Ring finger domain
Amino acid sequence: MELNQIADLLKDIHNMIDNNYLIGNEEIIIDIKDPSIFKNNNFIKNLGPYKQIKKDDELLKNDIKCSICCQNFKEGEYKRNLPLCNHVFHKKCIDKWLKNKKECPICRCDYSCLE
């Protein structure tokens, strides 16, 4: 559950209270299945440097796509190679992915050790 989802849930609960949908001694229990959303996601900097894609990059020569967004890599975009499995993605795609799941989307290599 992401922070914006939690905020939406809290707004819904607030609206239910304001509209008297919750009356009496009912308890509101929010089950957060993934407490890692409250952790600092600065571990992404531990993945090492990212690189700009140059016109002679193998990704362009072989017409390779990012496995997250399914778009071709383009000159000038940024790529990130994951250090443990060496899979490559658009930097923005894999950084967003790793904020929610601490594993490679291709091989499921665990990256939680970098936190």
Notes: The two ends are 19 Å apart (CA to CA). Helices lie at 3-18, 58-61, 91-100. The CA atoms of residues 17 and 23 lie 8 Å apart. The chain has a mean pLDDT of 81.
